[in-house]
Sequence to fold (245 residues):
Amino acid sequence: MSQLSNLFLSIGKPVKDEYGRAMGRIISFATTPSGKFDAAFIELSDGRFTRQPIEALTFSGTDITFISKIKSKAAVFCDQIPFIWRKDQALRDLSDKKKILPELYQELHSNFSTVLSQLKKDAEILMDETAMEISRCNDDLRALSYGVLHLELEHEIGKISEENYKSAFTILQENVKRTAAEKSDLELSKSKLSSMLLGDSGINVHKVSFPEQKTRVFIEPVAETPELPEPPVVVYVKEVGKAGI
Fold:
């Protein structure tokens, strides 16, 4: 009952994603007949509502964080696929040692193969989704590069006050850092899934840690979006306190 009371105290509290971006706020929860939390109802920042499984949220004091579905699913595949593969290998070893009947081996091996095949198909679909999200991050980073560039140009010719320049620069910098962190996480998830599907020692791949994000970020336009003007623009994002012109 204490868990139930504590979570319902989260109603009205803001929800952010893993990178600190505001998503919306908790409106209500769905529970099973036994009282177990099943889902959370979230009012998004644009006024729409969404129902998310409770496993997609973490609660730490007043902080409520929405976990990326891609990262969550990738972690599940990185656990389940090697686990089923190891069980199938152990089953084969038992069969080779004549410790189980051939018909039992065939039955269990067929079950494991079916499950493994479906998991791999789902992992391939997730890889495609991850690639699309990485492309979106690249587009966002390119747009942010141009945003920083034009901010610097307008400030340089005196069209933007120092106060407004610093405020806008801080917002752009935070978005650059968040998007770069998201892209890095997505690329790591895609790499782990790829290793898994290629059969590269996928058993321990899920233990790879995510690289720490630096406070200074170099933004380069992505080659796959040629419709934006050339030549390419490279923008160095620096701390606001040091952003002198």
Summary: Residues 102-156 form the longest helix (55 residues). DSSP finds four helices and eight strands in the chain.
